[in-house]
Write a structure and sequence with these properties.
The chain has 256 residues and is mostly helical. It is 69% helix and 5% strand. Strands 1-2 form a two-stranded antiparallel sheet. Strand 1 (90-96) and strand 2 (101-107) form a beta hairpin.
């Protein structure tokens, strides 16, 4: 009995292998609904592929296809016409060198062109989503660094209003993180550690179209030379007054 079962299994496996298998793109099975194909049309396309791959028949007749499907010949003809109308199937002619005759064949080029369009759209969408996720992660990381820097310099946790201001600088006003760090640095060095003062620095830079730290440094150097250049004939007393005024120059400049 065991020997008979083994013999049957071997014979079945041999026939299964001999009959062959059909290669069907998984994307066709996954996306056929997007192509406007119903299940009967999908199975019909699979059988057209099978006839080409297993029997080298590029143009199986509806009568032949009906042997493998649970629909009649008229339905198959109707489905073929529907696929042609949907521009997913086409009947073309080619010259057969073996027979020396022109023969018809089903072309699936239009179908694979449509699948290629879907593939390209999916890839573009995936790249866009990945880019968006990357930007979100980067923004969150930068905001986290800003929070840490401000809380370290202020020596305390930021209030909800201060946190909102920080987000507004980044996302609403569009200030670069480098400029925000630079404005904080200047506020710390000048001993004017409050958000209003830092905001006034950033707004002044924006008014003067300053977008980089390098531009900000050059701008303040020009401002310093223009406003606080001392005449050569000033007295020491005047110089002392001038030095005191220079000490507060940034406060006057940004809070004016």
């Amino acid at each position: 009995m065991t020997q008979k079962i083994a013999s049957f299994t071997s014979a079945y496996a041999a026939d299964l292998f001999i009959e062959g298998s059909v290669s069907v793109p998984f994307m066709l099975l996954r996306c056929y609904a997007q192509l406007g194909i119903n299940e009967t049309e999908l199975v019909l396309l699979i059988h057209i592929l099978a006839q080409r791959q297993l029997r080298n028949d590029p143009f199986p007749l509806p009568e032949e296809l009906a042997k493998f499907m649970a629909v009649d010949v008229l339905t198959i003809k109707s489905n073929i016409a529907s696929l042609i109308e949907k521009r997913l199937l086409n009947v073309e002619r080619k010259f057969n060198n073996s027979s020396g005759e022109w023969i018809n064949f089903f072309s699936l080029d239009l179908l694979f062109d449509k699948l290629a369009e879907i593939w390209a759209f999916e890839k573009a969408k995936q790249r866009e989503e990945n880019s968006s996720k990357k930007n979100i992660n980067t923004s969150s990381e930068i905001l986290g660094q800003l929070y840490q820097a401000f809380e370290k310099e202020f020596g305390r946790l930021l209030s909800p209003m201060e946190s909102s201001q920080l987000i507004e600088w980044c996302e609403g006003d569009g200030y670069s993180p480098d400029l925000i760090f630079e404005a904080l640095k200047r506020a710390v060095l000048r001993g004017i550690l409050n958000f209003k003062y830092i905001d006034s620095i950033l707004r002044d830079w924006a008014r003067n179209q300053i977008t980089t730290v390098k531009q900000a440094i050059a701008y303040e150097e020009r401002f310093q030379k223009t406003k606080f250049a001392e005449p050569a004939n000033k007295t020491k007393q005047e110089s002392g007054v001038k030095a005191k005024a220079q000490k507060d120059k940034y406060k006057d400049f940004y809070l004016s």
